[in-house]
Amino acid sequence: MIIGSLQAEPDPTPTGAFPDPSNLTLDNYADINSRIDLLQGLVNSGIFTGGVIGCTVVFGVLAGYALAVLQWRGRGLTFALALLVQVVPFQLLMIPLYVLIARDYGLADTHLGMILPFAINSTAVIVFRQYFLQLPRDLFDAARVDGAGELRLLRSVALPLVRPVLVTVVLITFIGPWNEFLWPFLITKDASKQPLAVSLANYISNVAATAANPFGAVLAGAVVLAAPAVGLFIVFQRYFTSSNIGSGVKG
């Protein structure tokens, strides 16, 4: 994809997978940036994705802790409902959510309108619950004896012990909203607020054919879109690997 984005003339043959110094150029990046603002698209994607990740982590930690550690009536039923949500495709909810957010809440053409449908992630709730269940109960009992409240228990005892899963949830959650284009496209028609994935989809469907090298320009946009996701994974890879290894260790 990177090599294709740098080619002055598209080379679909197997040799095109290798860089040819005589066929390399940055014109594809300049071309697509002149048609869609790559920097503004990245900023919008960052706002959208950051808001979703923040809400997912906060609500996921609170709900997962409540389902795993606290004792209250209806806990099993609530967890069953969280599991049931997993079988409902988001596409079935899209039209009702659009009516609710755009018409009833008046949040069309806003970042908040894009974030709200993804603010609570049932998968994150389930993942946090399972990790909190693995923590020894004695740790919480000892902290309660010392006078710690539930929020102090969550902040000082539980969260430091599940740090790898925090990173895992962030990475897994990041991919969805970062690449999401259908919902943001529905909720906002303002190009200055659309994430980069939406701008690229509009570019491919509307103006790519008019570019000097449509193939290279599309790949250039894809490189810009993929780079933050790859960079984030590389930075947090050791935490992600730690969570995978820890999940297979008993005791």
Automatic annotation (TrEMBL):
Gene3D superfamilies: MetI-like. Residues 42-236 form the ABC transmembrane type-1 domain. GO terms for biological process: transmembrane transport. The chain crosses the membrane at residues 47-70, 77-101, 113-132, 153-176, 215-236. GO terms for cellular component: plasma membrane. It is found in: Cell membrane. The keyword tRNA-binding does not apply. Belongs to the binding-protein-dependent transport system permease family. This is Carbohydrate ABC transporter permease.
